[in-house]
Amino acid sequence: MKKYKTASEIRVGTIGYGGAFNMGAQHLREMLKAGMTPCAVAELDPARLEVAKKDFPGIETYTSVTEMLKKSDVDLVTIITPHNTHAKLALQCLKAGRHVVCEKPLAITTGECDAMIAAARKNGVMLSTYHNRHWDGNIMRAVQVIRTGAIGEVYRIEAHMGGWAQPRDWWRCSKSISGGILYDWGVHLLEYSLQIVNADIVEVSGFAHKGYWAPRTPYKDDTNEDEGFAVVRFSNGVWLTLCITSLDSNPKEGHGVLEITGTEGSYVMDHGTWKLIGYDSDGNRVVTSGKNPPGEGWRFYQNIADHLTNGEKLVITAEWARRPIHILDLACRSAEKGRSLPAKYK
């Protein structure tokens, strides 16, 4: 893999600009903050390309990925497009000898991840996923507290997000485009959980309810499940449940709840707050709570820059990013087959 003397030598670009959450500008600004040099944007919408030119004066703009790879000397490409396009675009860039970061999720299927990892290895380039939430304040604090033994031996994790509401009329609500209801926030909650469970994945069981919201959406038969549920068994006896739902009339408090249960207590976190529940020597229930510290998502691209310049260990490897996708893929296939499926990757 090519090493760069300084981060500024790493010329970076995006496939996709604007759209949801203005992610194109966000990625380029974060890469710039890490010392890398924004140089190119590929985008189908001419209006968004004009915005990119205003945001980053002098940046190269292209209306196709093929044109960008042919004419630009961009070193690192971040893919900011719908989930079902990640694998195809990543393979195109990897085979052209470019480093690639995919917006999460890395891909939709395990097979797509495998093909992307193989292409990165063959072409001697880096492949990663934008798991900037690896450094969210809530999970960093949770990992720190749990490692002190504050809740004893962890044996169960419950990840939950949702409520009762009709899905929005956009691509994230399409099963074929998004991968399903579990893929958006579910991949974040799984990545949080996998930081806590230090064990191999053994098997996954998936469950789904579908059909309630579909007639009311433009996608009809291609609408996401109303609710997706997964149970993951680990080799050390820990089990994890993941539920993402749009049919929950009695949702848990908070946005993106993770409840980690141990032999001596529980740790509950959402995006903004945490709660530690335990017992004193007299058996009295003791609850403490507080606000989570701020996140440090900037570390993602800083780690990328340090990896490509100084050989620092890559935190979000493609193999790490494949783990939550493998769980989601198995969960969807398990729900269709009506039985648990063994894990291929641990």
Our measurement of the CA-to-CA distance between the termini, rounded to an integer number of angstroms, reads: 26 Å
- Main beta-sheet annotation: 9 strands, mixed
Strand fraction band?
Answer: 15-25%
Helical residues, percent: 25-40%
> Which residues form runs of ≥5 with pLDDT under 50?
none
The arrangement of helices and strands along the chain is EHEHEHEHEHEHEHHEEEEEEEHHE
CATH architecture annotation name of the largest domain = 2-Layer Sandwich
Assigned CATH superfamily of the largest domain: Dihydrodipicolinate Reductase, domain 2
What class would the helix/strand composition place it in?
alpha/beta
Radius of gyration: 21 Å
Protein described:
The protein has 346 residues and is an alpha/beta fold. It contains ten helices and 15 strands. The chain has helices at residues 23-33, 46-55, 65-71, 86-95, 110-123, 137-147, 175-178, 185-196, 299-310, 318-337; strands at 11-15, 37-42, 60-62, 76-79, 99-102, 127-129, 154-162, 201-209, 227-234, 239-245, 257-262, 265-269, 273-279, 285-291, 341-342. It is globular, with a radius of gyration of 21 Å.
Question: What is this entry, summarized?
Answer:
The protein is α/β, with parallel strands linked by helices. The chain is 32% helix and 25% strand. It has a nine-stranded mixed sheet. A six-stranded parallel sheet has the order 3-2-1-4-5-6, with helices on both faces.
Which helices and strands appear, and what pairs or packs with what?
Elements: E1 11-15, H1 23-33, E2 37-42, H2 46-55, E3 60-62, H3 65-71, E4 76-79, H4 86-95, E5 99-102, H5 110-123, E6 127-129, H6 137-147, E7 154-162, H7 175-178, H8 185-196, E8 201-209, E9 227-234, E10 239-245, E11 257-262, E12 265-269, E13 273-279, E14 285-291, H9 299-310, H10 318-337, E15 341-342
Parallel strand pairs: 1-2, 1-4, 2-3, 4-5, 5-6, 7-10
Antiparallel strand pairs: 7-11, 8-9, 8-15, 9-10, 11-12, 12-13, 13-14
Helix pairs in contact: 4-5, 5-10, 8-10
